[in-house]
Amino acid sequence: MRIFPCCLVFLAVFAAPARAQLVFSDGFESGSLASWTAGGAISTGFGNINPKEGSQYVALSFPSGGDAQTLTFSRSFSLGANAPVTVEFFAQRTDFTGINDVSAAFEVKIDSTVLTTSFPTFAGSNVQAGGWTTYQLVTPSDLGAGLHTLTFTFIRTASGFMRGPQLVLDGIAVSVPEPSIAGLLVLGGSAAYLVRRLRQRSRPVGQLRG
Fold first, then answer.
1. What CA–CA distance (Å, rounded) separates 41 from 159?
2. May I ask the CATH class of domain 21-177?
3. pLDDT at 105
4. Which residues 6+ apart lie within 8 Å of 83 measured at CB?
5. Burial track 155-191 (b if 16+ CB lie within 10 A, e otherwise)
6. How far is CA 175 from CA 7, 19, 178, in A?
7. From the DSSP assignment, how many helices (H) and strands (E) are in the chain?
8. How many CB atoms lie within 10 A of CB 72?
9. Does the pLDDT value for residue 187 go beyond 50?
10. How many CA atoms within 13 Å lie on the side-chain side of 198?
C-alpha cells in the first residue's frame, strides 16, 4: 500500500495533542492585587497556610462573628476570537478555629456563566500544602471575542460566633486552545481531499469508479 506524504501530514494533525494558549495566570508572588477587583476583605499572605505554589496566595476572609456577607474577587480579560475557556486554580476553605459550622456558599463564573458551586474540602485551621483542592473548569460553549470577567464569590449565609471562615486561592490560570490547531485541522481536510484526487488519477484507463 502506498502512503502519500500528504497523508502523513493528515495523520500527524490528528495525532498531535491540543495545546493551550495562556490568557493570564497569577500566583500572587508579587503581593499585588492590582490586576484584580476586590469586593470585601481580600489580601495576599502566607500566615499559617502553606501556599500551593511559591510563597503567596490570596485569601477571601470573613471577620469572626458578624452577619451574612458576600466577598467577590474578579479579573477581566480579552479574547481575540471565539473560543472555549479553561479556568484552573487551587483552593481551600479554612477557619482559624478549625471548626466548620458556618453556613457558606461558593461560586466561580465567567460573566453570567456559572462554572462551579462546589466547595473545596474544609482543611481545618493550620493547613499544609496537601490541603488544597485542584480545579479545572471549562466553559460549556465558546466565549465570543472581546472582554470577559472571571469572578470568585464567597458567601457567608449566616453568622458564626467567633468563626472566621476563609476561602484561599492560588495558581489561578485562564487559557484557550492554540489558534494554530484550527489551522492544522483545515490543512488535514485539504490533505484528505488531495489523497482522493491522487488515487483517482492513479487508476488504469477504463477502470470503473466506485
1. 16
2. mainly beta
3. 87
4. 142, 143, 176, 177
5. bbeeebeebbbbbbbbbbbbbbeeeeeeebeeebeeb
6. 31, 10, 9
7. 2, 11
8. 16
9. no
10. 12
When mean pLDDT is compared across 13-22, 72-81, 107-116, the lowest value belongs to 13-22
Ramachandran area for residue 65 (φ above 0: left; ψ -120 to 50: alpha; else beta): left
Taking phi first (over 0 means left), then psi (-120 to 50 degrees means alpha), and beta for anything else, what does residue 111 get?
A: left
Span 134-162, mean pLDDT? 90
pLDDT band at 1 (very low <50, low <70, confident <90, very high): low
Out of 50-64, 71-85, 172-186, 190-204, least confident range? 190-204
SS3 18: coil
Could you tell me the three cell numbers for 14? Answer: 490528528
pLDDT digits (tens, 9 = 90+) for 46-64: 566 778 888 889 988 877 6
Grid cell listed for 117: 458551586
